[in-house]
Amino acid sequence: MSTTFQEQLQYKIDHKTKPLLALGMLEDIAFRIATIQQTLTPELKEPHIIVFAASHGIAESGVSAYPSEVTPQMVLNFIAGGAAINVFTRQHGIKLLLADAGVDYEFEPNEQLIDLKVNRGTRNMLHEPAMTRQEGELCLERGALLVDRVKETGCNVIGFGEMGIGNTSSASLIMSKLLKISIADCVGRGTGLDDEQLLKKQAILQQVLDQYTVSENDIIGILTVFGGFEIAMMCGAMIAAANTKMIVLVDGFIASVAFLCASKLNPSVKDFAVFCHQSDEKGHALLMQKLDAKPVLTLGLRLGEGTGCALAYPLLQSAVAFLNEMASFDEAGVSKKTTS
């Protein structure tokens, strides 16, 4: 009787020199990677993380502990190599790409910054939709085209990060609208709001949510009204990565909301995702539950930038290494578990 690929893969994992399930989630990760690549000997090649940055008009309404000018300042920090994501990608041998999706700043031309700017920040959705539908569609297209370029390098594993003061507000609104969850259950402290500021943020976002009528089935419409340029670009990038059968590393709350949008537009994206960590942002645990996702790490992170992807990547390497290099019971001459 012939066996399916998944049965062969599970047999290989189960017959390594270890008790069943003894490597815990590493076994799940190995199974996922091998299934994506449809091989019993998977490889991770040319890992990349793309950080998309954009400014948010809603930031002017006081939904963040930091001013909006921090967004371009942090992009300059990325270029200089001084941010957390720079440190972690250098440490783990991951290629980092920086993309200006729509920062309210005119950067000098720099080979380290990819200019995908759709506009100089979104509009303040407290007063008008964040972007036009044309801008939303352009974001999806530009995110996808960038991934296609990365694919040409031989990359088969890619993660996505973001930078944008105010983007937890956009992410909370999108999550609330798509999953029909109260905004109070989605809104967190973002960049570190105190209790009073958090209540203000929640009230502002409820006001935003109440003033627009958009169907939960109109994903691009929701991105248009509530989104950020970086969130929409991540969405398009994730779909493109899945379409080319790349492993998609999903970072924290913002990236997971982009993934939620991507999965609504193309459900097959779910088959290529590895959820790297559960953020400390309030809505993320609930979102992971709704996506039936099991994050690799739970470290209390809430930084963004793709840092969770970079930190989880060595565990993917370990999962692939044990699958490819660890001896089986037969190869090692080790006795198997006795059966009664």
From TrEMBL:
InterPro entries: Nict_dMeBzImd_PRibTrfase, Nict_dMeBzImd_PRibTrfase_bact, Nict_dMeBzImd_PRibTrfase_N, Nict_dMeBzImd_PRibTrfase_sf. It comes from Dyadobacter luteus. The active site is at E305 (proton acceptor). One of its GO terms (biological process) is cobalamin biosynthetic process. Coiled coil: none annotated. This is Nicotinate-nucleotide--dimethylbenzimidazole phosphoribosyltransferase. The lineage of its organism: Bacteria, Pseudomonadati, Bacteroidota, Cytophagia, Cytophagales. The chain crosses the membrane at residues 219-240, 246-262. Keywords: Cobalamin biosynthesis, Glycosyltransferase, Membrane, Transferase, Transmembrane, Transmembrane helix. Pathway: Nucleoside biosynthesis; alpha-ribazole biosynthesis; alpha-ribazole from 5,6-dimethylbenzimidazole: step 1/2. Belongs to the CobT family.
